[in-house]
Amino acid sequence: MYYRSIIGRSRGRYAAAGFATAGLSLVGVAAPATATLPAAPSDPPTAPSAATELSQRPVFEDGRYVVLLQQAPTASYDGGLRGYDATVPGDGKKFDADSRSARRYDALLDRRQERIIARADISASAVSARFTTVTNGFTADLRAKQAAALSRDSAVLAVTPDELGR
Asked: Which residues contact 48 (CB under 8 A, 6 or more apart)?
């Protein structure tokens, strides 16, 4: 399914956008690529250093994930790419998802998402939703190997288990 109308194209886009943003923040997607860390060994407790905790690689399991991408979503793109005008609204103006600039930039995000999905060898049927307006990313049923590969991709901001989609 493709849920572009849920965020940005429908009459209730601001309510849906707020819901999506609140929902995504509930699952902790603002953090870097995350998953469950391996359990600590049963040795006597010692205080690990912050560097040790941060250096551990996340352990992914098969499941549904929210994948957020680095590139700005359409509603907050402030320019910088040759051939793509800024889409963020000026002072006192509302975002226009149907403007020529927004549609062009949105199409660019679609193409880049397709490349990231292909690089991780994710089938189209595994992707349950894609987002470009308020946030740039997608949700998908992933194997552990795919989630780990996405977490190492420089175009990916976060890979987080989808707690709301269960």
From this structure: none
